[in-house]
Amino acid sequence: MAERGRRDLVVVGGGPAGLAVAAAAAARGLEVLLLERGSLPADKACGEGLLPAGVRALEALGALALLPPEERAPLRAIRWIDASGATAEARFPGEGGLGVRRTALSAALLARARAAGVEVRERTPAVSHRRGPSGVEVATPSAVERAALLVAADGLSSPIRVREGLDRPVGGVQRFGVRRHFGVAPWTDAVEVWFGEGLEAYVTPCGPRRVGVALLHEASARSSFGEMLERFPALRARLGRAPFASAQAGAGPLQREASARIRDRLVLLGDAAGYVDAITGEGLSLALESALELGRALPGALARGAGEAALAPWERATARRFRVYAARTRFVLGLARRPEARRRVLSAAARHPRALARLVSWAVG
Ligand SMILES: Cc1cc2nc3c(=O)[nH]c(=O)nc-3n(C[C@H](O)[C@H](O)[C@H](O)COP(=O)(O)OP(=O)(O)OC[C@H]3O[C@@H](n4cnc5c(N)ncnc54)[C@H](O)[C@@H]3O)c2cc1C
Q1: Taking a C-beta distance cutoff of 8 angstroms, is the pair 308, 192 a contact?
Q2: Count of domains forming the chain
């Protein structure tokens, strides 16, 4: 389909969003080049909890079976634990979710992308780009690549979103995330969200002897990982003397907004298209689902010229899903900031487990 010297697609960013859309598009016969500034497989600050919808998307991409058993753990439920001791838990629907090491997720998606025929270039940053009526040019330090469409999957800070003037300033409290793994057998098959003052601990089993702890915090609550963890004494006791099983990795500010997700011959995908917060653990699922759907939509959109009108049906569906995620995340963030309301909601949820399970089933698909 692509002209000589010009691909159908250049994807910038080899995170889950970029690898997934590259794999899905190449599997439909498109010629795809992926540029990643770092090395692959990649690690990243992440809670590593994949909700059921994300697990299904991984399966559809053919990547689920490639996750080694020692890098994953089943997640059957989500449990919220308040500093006051109030706790509520809901089972995930169906097969449940998955805790998975980012390096293993990256390796599985990379293998699918390469098997589908994607040309993957590591340690190759996109340094600039230009959109024209008939295509895009993306410059790396060593070459200029041409394609019919550019997918910017370049993460939270998305240089492409910024260069395009699509970065919308966000106000309010800035939040950050930092994670480490502990070498300990998981004590539960639930992903746990521990609420503290100005910070939460997001605890995910992600291997037979590995538990990840991501601390999500406001700028004012920032301290060292160890000091922030001490603010959850019951969790600290659970971890006991378990050794660290990874280096510390951080990210933030978390909240980002894009004024648009598509332009003629350009799509922003994954975190590059906007992010609210990690507190509901949905970023990966959103990224994988929207990448999969974009891969399905692209042959038709490219045949129609890859302009905004051709990309609009995908954009509308993705925007709907993002609005639901954003509303849900803002609600949980509101509870995180209001201890009294949170205690009341958790106590009510614990008294009505069936209603909570229905709510969670609706929320996480
Ligand atoms: C602390 C924390 C905890 C989280 N917990 C969870 C969780 O439990 N569950 C969940 O589902 N989600 C979670 N998330 C969110 C999840 O990590 C993101 O939503 C997900 O990584 C988005 O994938 P992405 O591909 O869009 O971006 P990324 O994974 O950030 O990938 C972007 C890629 O683009 C590359 N790149 C950037 N600029 C360039 C350039 N100029 N040229 C070439 N390459 C470039 C980067 O090197 C990177 O590899 C969490 C996030 C944080 C910060």
Answers
A1: no
A2: 1
**Which residue from 242, 318, 44 is spatially nearest to 156, judged by alpha carbons?**
44
CA of 276 to the centre of ligand 1 (A): 13
- Provide the residue range defining the domain that includes 46: 6-71+98-171+254-336
Residue-wise pLDDT for 93-106, tens only, equals: 888 999 999 999 99
Chain position carrying tokens 């590591």: 122
SS3 of 78, please? strand
Identify which of 207, 312, 319 has the alpha carbon closest to the alpha carbon of residue 273. Answer: 319
Does any ligand 1 atom lie closer than 6 A to the CB of residue 253? Answer: no
Per-residue CA distances from 90 to 185, 195, 213, 218 (Å): 22, 16, 20, 27
Residue 161: is its pLDDT beyond 70?
Answer: yes
In a domain, 271, yes or no: yes
- Determine how β-strand 274-275 pairs with β-strand 266-268: unpaired
Residue 142 CA, ligand 1 centroid: distance in Å? 25
Q: How much is the average pLDDT of 221-228? A: 93
In contact, 262 and 150? CB cutoff 8 Å:
no
Q: pTM for the full model?
A: 0.96
Cα dihedral 20, 109, 212, 182, rounded to 10, equals: -160
In this structure, which residue's CA is closest to atom 35 in ligand 1?
13
Q: Is the CB of 363 under 6 A from ligand 1?
A: no
Query: Is residue 188 situated within a structural domain?
Result: no
3-state secondary structure of 51: coil
Q: Does 99 contact ligand 1 (Cβ within 6 A)?
A: no
Helices (H) and strands (E) in the chain, counts: 10, 21
